[in-house]
Amino acid sequence: MPYTHIAQNIATVRDQIKQSCVQHQRQLDTVTLLAVSKTKPAEAVRAAFEAGQVEFGENYLQEALDKQQALADLPIVWHFIGPIQSNKTRAIAEHFDWVHSVDRLKVAQRLNDQRPDHLPPLNICLQVNISQEESKSGLSLAELPEFAAQIAQMPRLCLRGLMAIPAPCDNPVLQRKPFAEMKQALLTLQSQYSSLDSLSMGMTDDMDAAIAEGSTMVRIGTAIFGARDYTASH
Ligand SMILES: *Cc1c(COP(=O)(O)O)cnc(C)c1O
User: Fold this and answer.
1) Does the predicted TM-score (pTM) go above 0.90?
2) CA dist., res. 100 & res. 103, Å (int)
């Protein structure tokens, strides 16, 4: 069995989440673990599912669709967390439960229009470029109110919250600043839109800081599946 380490890794990550919750006075059931399986084979996802993991995040559409087909027998909750090309929105609207990386109105409108009627509204997080990096996708904090107002008008989308990927930083204290800004932004929007309950933030290297500042969904790849090898397909 080549993927036996995955169950142990998930147990370790769940334990770290628990410790962070205790340390930062968060209730354990308010933090969801999203396993990020990009570049990893379907068998690795299956091993994680068998270890009790239900929510998975994918970045590359075709790769995700292939895995979904191979794993169609499992009741997995699929999250799309990668950059979205507007010609790919139909497949995303049809095959995912959540999209974390919405930062263009055109993409949001297409997801709304293309979400099949037999499925519930698509759960949406707006991606915020919280570290204001030139090269990164995401909205600025200033753009959020207008953008949220537009999304709230779209009946086939459910605006659930905000997502961010802060610039890498190896100081655990400094890591908290962008996450605190995200929490503040969520609180502001929550006063207007009752559907918002999610802060998608925290990865393998900054999970504790994100939980300290109110993350409700940590997106963990490396700590579960090991380092990624991009030379093969991406
Ligand atoms: C790859 C990826 C992750 C997981 O990162 P790790 O550092 O491997 O935990 C989380 N979020 C997004 C958007 C990603 O692209």
Assistant:
1) yes
2) 9
Instruction: In whole angstroms, give the CA distance from residue 229 to residue 208.
Output: 25
- Which residues lie with the beta carbon below 6 Å from any ligand 1 atom? 36, 38, 59, 81, 165, 203-205, 219-222
- Taking the centre of ligand 1 as the mean of its atom positions, its distance from the CA of residue 218, in whole angstroms, is 9
* pLDDT tens readout for residues 51-64: 999 999 999 999 99
Q: Which domain holds residue 87?
A: 4-225
Distance 62 CA to ligand 1 centre (A): 18
Ligand 1 atom closest to 100 (CA): 13
Largest CA distance in the chain: 51
Tell me: the pLDDT tens digits for 134-174?
988 999 999 999 999 999 999 999 999 999 999 999 999 99
Q: What per-residue confidence (pLDDT) applies to 94?
A: 98
CB atoms inside a 10 Å sphere around CB 152: 17
Q: Check pLDDT > 70 for residue 72.
A: yes
CATH number at residue 112: 3.20.20.10
Q: Please tell me the distance between residue 118's alpha carbon and the centre of ligand 1 in angstroms.
A: 30
Q: What is the pLDDT of residue 2?
A: 67
Number of domains in the chain: 1
Residue 231 lies in a domain: no
Query: Which atom of ligand 1 lies nearest, measured to the CA of 36?
Result: 4
Element (H, E) at 34: strand 32-36
Nearest-atom number in ligand 1 for the CA of 81 is 13
33 Cα: distance to centroid of ligand 1 (angstroms): 12
CA–CA gap between residue 234 and residue 229 (Å, rounded)? 9
Angle at 54 between CA 81 and CA 9, to 5 degrees: 90
